[in-house]
Specification:
With about 120 residues, this protein is mainly alpha-helical. The protein is built from three helices and two strands. Strands 1-2 form a two-stranded antiparallel sheet. The chain is elongated and about 65 Å long.
Length: about 120
């Protein structure tokens, strides 16, 4: 009985002494990452390996360059609706990739109605 109270006390002490993690709003992709709309920065939560940070940096660069640029990447799925500030930006990328690759490479039109990222302003 004393052992179970001691175990319970230790468990409670560990829970109370652990750092508190605050979440923020925003959707993350399959890698646990997202793009900050204000800055265009692509970053990940939960871990920081060299390979992951290199991938994060590459995606940030690609996504930032895609905005207002003719350098839209249509060879691989790297854009998500939260990466764009407006529906118009997403629609431009969607249409360009339809023209270049012949399909919705990035999955920006989830309901296949020809309108990309409908929830964006």
């Amino acid at each position: 009985m004393k052992l179970s109270f001691l175990s319970f006390g230790v468990a409670v002490a560990l829970l109370l002494s652990s750092p508190v993690a605050y979440a923020h709003s925003g959707k993350t992709d399959a890698n646990g990452c997202h793009t900050v709309k204000k800055t265009g920065e692509y970053h990940c939560h939960g871990g920081s390996g060299t390979a992951k940070s290199a991938k994060t940096e590459a995606k940030t660069t690609a996504r930032t360059e895609a905005r207002g640029s003719a350098n839209v990447l249509c060879s691989t799925n790297i854009y998500n609706c939260p990466d764009f500030a407006t529906h118009s930006e997403a629609q431009d990328v969607y249409e360009e990739c339809l023209q270049k690759a012949g399909k919705d490479v990035h999955g920006l039109d989830g309901d296949d109605d020809g309108i990309a990222c409908e929830d964006l302003p």
